[in-house]
Amino acid sequence: MRATTIHAPFDMRVADVPDPVVRNPGDAVVRVLRSCICGSDLWAYRGESARRAGQRIGHEFLGIVEETGAEVTGVGRGDLVVAPFMWSDGVCDYCREGLTTSCEHGGFWGSVGSDGGQGEAVRVPFADATLVALPAEAASDDRLLAALLTLSDVMGTGHHAALGAGARAGVTVAVVGDGAVGLCGVLAAKRLGADRIIALGRHEARTDIARRFGATDVVAERGDAAVDAVRELTRGQGAHAVVEAVGTEQSMRTAVSITRDGGAIGFVGVPHGSGTGLDLSVMFDRNIALRGGVAPVRTYIPELLPDVLDGTIDPSPVFDLTVGLEGVPDGYKAMDERTALKVMVAN
Amino acid sequence: MRATTIHAPFDMRVADVPDPVVRNPGDAVVRVLRSCICGSDLWAYRGESARRAGQRIGHEFLGIVEETGAEVTGVGRGDLVVAPFMWSDGVCDYCREGLTTSCEHGGFWGSVGSDGGQGEAVRVPFADATLVALPAEAASDDRLLAALLTLSDVMGTGHHAALGAGARAGVTVAVVGDGAVGLCGVLAAKRLGADRIIALGRHEARTDIARRFGATDVVAERGDAAVDAVRELTRGQGAHAVVEAVGTEQSMRTAVSITRDGGAIGFVGVPHGSGTGLDLSVMFDRNIALRGGVAPVRTYIPELLPDVLDGTIDPSPVFDLTVGLEGVPDGYKAMDERTALKVMVAN
Questions:
Q1: Inter-residue contact B188 to B258 (CB < 8 Å)
Q2: In the predicted model, what is the mean pLDDT of residues B164-187?
Q3: Residue B286 is nearest to which of A102, A271, A285, comparing CB atoms?
């Protein structure tokens, strides 16, 4: 089959690789219908996260079950399914508590020896625990497929950030980061009942989506000016709940500065310098909490899925470019150069 | 009157200073019965926190109201009262939410221009909001006075840490720091229902108190060995709830390392390097939360006071040395050299 491989920074290829097969009785093989490129894939693309030459990539996909191992009972051949960005066994202490990302037997798509989502098919370990079945009729609805695909990562990650930040009725939420996760953080905050949502971002195409998703205010300034603008919108106090969806020193510094005393930062931006932006003395003096991390999106899918299916939330606008599998390298280039917000791969 | 003043690192004096008087209609003057020396006072003593020569010091005290301004109605002359370690106005947004440490008109005892607790008397701003009345009969009960004095800081701060860490029934709590705050963290965790409490500490006199306060296990190792020991006690997973009551790089590093995936660190050690010990990548991968800061102990006094009065909790054993006011410099020396755990000053 064909699948995306990464060879060096900025060197993405679509290559012939072995077809996936069922290896363990809990495995399934899923034929990918839709996958996408994640902002976090760009860390590998840019060489800031190490990859072995030829390693697969892509951790967001949905598709049709093609084959299942002898022990798989929850999904069967022909089912439309979505996969979260990590597999998990569903039975360890952490899985039972919902922290599937800490699963004792969990792993990442695209790690060495495993398939990546940006390919024709994927071997899925622990298929019963990992995959979530979707209504078959969704397969013929492009808009709905796009919305469902976000459940594999960005929508669940935005939800995790909003929960960590404490988004709820009666509070003001601010979102640092205008990528797909930040925008889904806006949508999640709105869904959780936040009264006021301030989106920080300079790109009008993105802030327009933020407004569609529920942002009541947009702050286009950066750095100190952004902090001043948020404080002006919040009687000088800052936001109760702040989503940090970037992971850099500057974004974390901004997040701390715009959080109201006693508030919380929900952080989901993969840390690339953000630790340095965390001023613990300021957080101490102002009782600012930090909660978040890699999002257990598998746990959130059953909660978010009905709202996506009935249209209560529609995260599909985060995709603004669609490529075929052979176009994946171009998709990376577009996201790296910020000419695309998020790229969908339609097989 | 006589009061403690700080002149340079390691240069504490007891000097003649002006008698406090009511300046504003909301003020009270409190004649101090008991005060104490805090671990955080040692940062000033050692020159690690800057002080102006002659500045007052001491932020924990209880005593008898001597005089009140025209607008004070909640406490009156002759009342036995305890003061939290900051004053607060009781009416601003933050005070109404219980975050009295972020009060818009709040301040610290011993800051420039204000009295400190380690003296004969203190002018208390916003007396109605700041002071909490105690039963008069407590004044003649030395043990109870000592226990009540901890409500001014260490007991409330330990409670804040335990809450931040998420101590509750069914969880394992670990406490980093065997000072008075760490020990009160043990007591608070026990009070909140924690099943298992692991105290980290090497000094037997202190770990004995930890056991009296509810610790079920004591880990005497330090650094990596301490981490291994806690993991061994917790099936390799770590503690759900970790109290960080020191504030150094090493203590925070230990706290992160012994927190279970999905758990939380309640941090109340005044940051002196602890930011560097916070490995955000580890916290991200393992979904470790950080909550805490300067404790709004004023808010906690009404909740903790009944339990102190009826003996449900007795934090008084944190005091192991009592000096008179003129003995305060010796008290600092004893705490700095760790020959005393916590020094009470009996006027």
A1: no
A2: 98
A3: A102
